[in-house]
Amino acid sequence: MAKANERIVALCADDYGLSQGVSVGILKALDAGRLTAVSALVNGSHWPAMGRDLLRHCENADVGLHFNLTLGRPLSPMPKLAPTGAFPAVRQLIGLAMGGKLPMEEIRSEIERQLDRFEAVMERRPDFVDGHQHIHGLPGIREALLDAMAARKLAGRAWVRDAADGPHRIALRRAHIGKALAVRALTSGLRRAAKWRGFAVNDGFSGFSDFDPGKDYAEAFETFLRAPGRRHLIMCHPGHVDDELKALDPVTITREQELAFLLSSRMPEMLERRGLKLGRLSAALR
């Protein structure tokens, strides 16, 4: 239980299911009590098996869908968005979204398929929904995703990640300001749309990184703790590196560095010095 002067923050590991190594690393951090949320990719080959493993480790953490339109392959053909069978790069998706040229019928169907696949394995609905590379907040996608969640009666039961923190808090962290402001601009409107449909959202967001293995992740994590919001959410990307990860994603070595820090004594000591305690966002939003 948090002390009277402690503030609760949530720590979410993204990309569960990306590869065996990433997923095993996240499970280690869960078992150590160093995470309070896990965001799962469900369109890869590891999801059914790794989802069942996650079920055995997530008693004290929220588990959500990491909705994905930019990595790997869709769950069924999307001839307009993914004519080669593979999702487009995030820059291409952003361009389509900002230009109002997204194939929305295909995207709505993919949203349903990914939600269905999550629920089939986890045997429950997601505690929250977010997006790989924050694509869930893009125009068109956010409305379709919120509509799908509302149709499943998730309002009041699931929260939505808002990666658009306030500019004053972004400035106070003095790190990755450009990236944080860019995501804020691209996803502007998500918070209002989610609240209008009855979905809770986090208040405060950090965790942006340039994934530079030459930098000390502990120093980066310290910046994530600056100027926390009332219901603050921090994202992280821990995991082990394996050949599959190397083939899928450029972020490799820093995942090992993040995991090592999360499992070290430095992490809880840093939280304690700042009067912070890890907790589930679903509990804070009740």
Automatic annotation (TrEMBL):
SUPFAM superfamilies: Glycoside hydrolase/deacetylase
Organism domain of life: Bacteria
CDD domains attached to this UniProt entry: YdjC_like_3
InterPro entries, sorted: Glyco_hydro/deAcase_b/a-brl, YdjC-like
Cofactor: Mg(2+)
Gene3D superfamilies to which the protein is assigned, alphabetical: Glycoside hydrolase/deacetylase
UniProt KW keywords: Carbohydrate metabolism, Hydrolase, Magnesium, Metal-binding
Record's keyword annotation contains DNA-binding: no
One Pfam family of this chain: YdjC
UniProt keyword Glycoprotein, yes or no: no
Name of the protein: ChbG/HpnK family deacetylase
Species, as recorded: Methylocystis iwaonis
